[in-house]
Specification:
Length: 235
């Protein structure tokens, strides 16, 4: 159960009935482990700022510390509610660490958290971004020719070389996007919390780059499928 005190959400301890901030794991009144609240987020849960450039060592240290605190073995003889809370927090902790330790998933999660990336964007990621139209057109033509070569029993080395060449401009695009994402991540981290216009601008740019990056990864996956002979639908 969650409450609210002076506009700051708190959660209720099921053991003593006291209140605690949503990013606290143990009740400050009775020290019992708290049931998992859903008002927080992965960043606050792991005790790190809502930034895109996180110190991996700090992230892992916080993860290991909390892993020990939540481990179900410590709650083997505890009340059922505490055992359940340890399992909930351990599971949530694993999800949080797995998401935040990778820069790509960290960006996507931040966008979801800020309301800039929604489930419906999965459909948008299937559409060819305007910035990639030229590359997609050229790649489709190249893949058609590679398939013809394979069907005509051309030497494997020849059509594999064509595939490798076709991947080069796509790889270059991915490298450009990764560089842009790093720059945008630094911009996000430097913004003040009350800079609404700046935050909105960076979030929009991050969303566009993420959707384009996802499409680029799909292009490279298509090339890989052709190389392994599994093929795939036209892009």
């Amino acid at each position: 159960m969650s409450l609210s005190t002076n506009s700051h959400p708190v959660q209720e301890c099921r053991t003593c009935g006291g209140g605690a901030p949503v990013d606290v794991h143990f009740c400050p009144n009775c020290t019992k482990i708290l049931s998992l609240g859903r008002q927080g987020d992965y960043f606050s849960f792991l005790g790190v700022p809502r930034k895109l450039n996180l110190d991996p060592a700090v992230l892992e240290q916080n993860f290991r510390t909390l892993s020990r605190q939540f481990h179900p073995d410590y709650f083997y003889n505890a009340a059922p509610a505490e055992r359940r809370a340890s399992l909930e927090r351990s599971s949530y902790l694993n999800d949080a660490f797995r998401t935040l330790k990778q820069p790509a998933s960290r960006v996507s999660y931040l966008l979801e958290l800020e309301g800039a990336l929604k489930g419906t964007d999965r459909d948008a990621s299937k559409k060819v971004p305007a910035s990639l139209l030229e590359e997609v057109f050229a790649l489709n033509e190249e893949l058609d020719e590679v398939r013809e070569m394979r069907n005509s029993d051309a030497p494997e080395a020849e059509w594999r070389a064509r595939l490798a060449k076709a991947a080069v401009p796509i790889e270059q695009k991915r490298a450009e996007h990764e560089s842009q994402l790093r720059d945008l991540s630094e911009r996000w981290d430097s913004l003040a919390d009350d800079d609404a216009a700046g935050r909105a601008s960076v979030l929009t740019a991050l969303r566009e780059r993420v959707l384009e990056r996802n499409y680029i990864n799909n292009l490279l996956a298509t090339i890989e499928r052709e190389a392994t002979g599994t093929g795939g639908p036209q892009l």
